[in-house]
User: Fold these one by one.
Assistant:
Number 1:
Amino acid sequence: MFNKILIANRGEIALRIIRACKELGIKTVAVYSQADVDSLHVRFADEAVCIGPPPSSESYLNIPRLISAAEITNAEAIHPGYGFLAENSRFAEISQSCNIRFIGPSPEVIDKMGNKSLAKETMRKAGIPVIPGSEGVIKTVSEAKEIAKTIGYPVILKASAGGGGKGMRIVQDEEQLENAFETAQTEATAAFGNGDLYLEKFFVHPRHIEIQILGDDYGNVIALGERECSIQRKHQKLIEEAPSPAINQQLRDRICAAALKGAKAVGYTSAGTIEFLLDTDGNFYFMEVNTRIQVEHPVTEMVIGLDLVKEQIRLAAKGKLDSINYKMRGHAIECRINAENPTKNFMPSPGTITYFHIPGGPGVRVDTHAYAQYVIPPYYDSLLAKVIIHGRTREEALRRLQRALEEFVIEGVQTTIPFHLKVLEDERFRNGEYDINFLESFELSS
């Protein structure tokens, strides 16, 4: 096991990793920008190193500064968390070349799965259902038109090198295709330095299902069930739950088997997720692989009873997967509490938190780096906290979640707590009858 780990991240995930390390008896090194000097991850780590000014490009995305921080503190490994450099194969490669263990899959796997079109082709060859569309990158509008004619409209253009909704355009008919192609290509180039696009069939009412996987260095891979992530705004997840209200045990077994086949096909190690679209007929299609821990990983932890971050660290230290048959027990739901104003199109709301009271009680977990008088910097993601609830049934979890959100008091800034409470009042959500378009109609009727 490692003696010391550097955490190449900030906020609640950095604090989450510190907690896992403390329970494993591992010393921690926090890195921070000048804007994060008062963040809790800096306070609770054993050591802390300032790596630059507030902009991410000069701090959390600056590989030489991160490697230098690891070297001067004698850290044996780096945990990248999620976001920033978590899926950057170059960072993983440089870390390993400096004899610093990167806590994640190999640079080769990150590279292969980070390229969406290559990942899709890899899964197709492994016999996993993929969304109908181009077999790789499309170079011209005329090529896109030919494929769209074959699979039928609507279609969606996606950036091969990215995610988070950047370089993505839904096209309803051939007339829209040329303009959408040029716009998506320009946006992808600006966001990722790579304008490559691929094209897929667009499903009108799908659900977003992801399978949590773990792999070790000895060829063993396990699937820990699904998470439903269909409550999204502009392709950003807001609410996640496990198990999915739309999946029975038979379908769960099939999707997990497909995820395991895909993970084994690429020699996957560490924690990750394989994401699928589920259509209204119960057919599922591979979307992408996230080669990192997910924001919503606590949902699986609550129903499985396994600390995924500790497992990540243990596997990176050449540990072997336990031969336990993990089963989901009860129901878990996570709400992401962002410093945003839902009534003003979710506009970010940085500033000083004047009062901060978190909920408690049975089955309630809050992951946060915030506190009273904490100043939310305007430079980073607006995630303030995650409220994760566990109940014996989905109904109990929903009631417990409503109670917890009503207890959660944050003053001084706007948050998404009122939004989440409104979603909980929606009959479709309470009945589990929703898909990734839920918020479009929800916003119109609210």
Note: DSSP finds 15 helices and 22 strands in the chain.
Number 2:
Amino acid sequence: MLIKILVVDDSASDRLIIENMLSEYCVLTACDGVEAVRMLEEHDGINLLILDLNMPNMDGFQVLEFIKENERYRKLRTIILTVYDELENEIRGLNLGAVDYIRKPIHMASLRARIDVHVALLRAEEALERQLDEQTLTFDMLFEQAPIGIAISYSCDPKHSDDFIVRINSMYEQITGRTKEELINLGWAKITHPDDVQEELDNFRKLQSGEIKNYSMEKRYIKPDGTIVWVYMTVAALAPIGESKINHICLIQDISRRKQLETECRYITEHDRWMGLYNREYLVSLLEKHARLKKNSKKALIGINLSMVQLLIANYGYQYSKNLIKKAAEALSRYCTDNCILFYMGDNYFIYYLFDYKDKKELVDLGGVIAETLESLFVTDRIGGGIGILEIEQDQDEVDIDLLMSKIMIASERSISLFGNNFQTCFYNEDLEALVKRERDILEALNIIASDDYTPNTGYYFFLQYQPILNIRTGSICGFEALARLRTK
């Protein structure tokens, strides 16, 4: 069976990467929805459509509507490309007839795995549609030699399969670690990880009711020894053949290695290699996520600025100072909870992110505990610092990450300027904001006055004030002190 794949994406680089990866198939490409429709009309036998939803001229949703309205494309299987967290677009695309989705940036191994599954499903469907006397040999060979697990069933009860499973190939048994008899007696719900059961039950019921024709998902099977195997699964409804009551086919592919690599890559991306703590990138992503999902929740940052570290590096070397900071990381990690997460921002700066906390007193108490811990830890190392606390405003759909980082840094620096290096807490409040604004305004005025094209018409200028000097013995003025004053708007 010749597999024709049409890749529709307005990104030329993404089209080229996908085309090269699927070089063993006949791959066509289009840069937008208009060209995609033209390609579909001009080329017969396109089996798979990889469709970007966000495109100029004619977007992916319009293409899906065009396909849905044309009987000619009823066998065309569409995989949509979405951006991370575009759940509504994914649901809308699936409702318009798409059978699967891939999130950008595209993980090529994942895309390849999904394409292989859908190609296997296409070939299985083709085999089932042939004449019964011609299909037996072909289907049996495909069924037993396929590199993916295949099960054909007309069971409507996932918890009590009895003898409703028609056929299960050896790869399915190998992946799940169970014999055909065990699979029939237990049913798939009992060997599925509890966290994945509800999602599959919902999809399965929609399939049985005719609401959807197929669904795909990543799920976990529990093997007899308790180990977990991740699979990418596709389930599709099948039309009855003769007197048979067969109504769906299930294909699974072992993706445990890929999930392990994803977990490792995610850890590297989200953690500082040296400290083992979450890094700035993960803090940014978490703040953005909670801005959408926890609008009414209390959220705050506690910044810890360790001073004198640069001096220690100069005197004792980088490794010595790094080991001291690592000691601080280990000590501060003891106060982490489910709603209090510690991040290492680099150099000599740590941040706690708290959410769903009770009140301001909880922040003050934690600041006090942090101060005591660091003072006792660095009592002989001449390391001090400041602790800044920032309560994040609620009911905001978006957050200005750079502004938050600037505010918490200002609060911790202000703590040092007010209390020295004694690890005292300083809240970022209206008074501190006004002070920072005043300093910013003064700096702006000085820059304007110092510029080459300065004129007094700008409203910024210096003027003199004379302050008398009094002789306290005689009570008379004995001189004046000339003071330069800055006039701002």
Note: The first helix runs from residue 12 to 21.
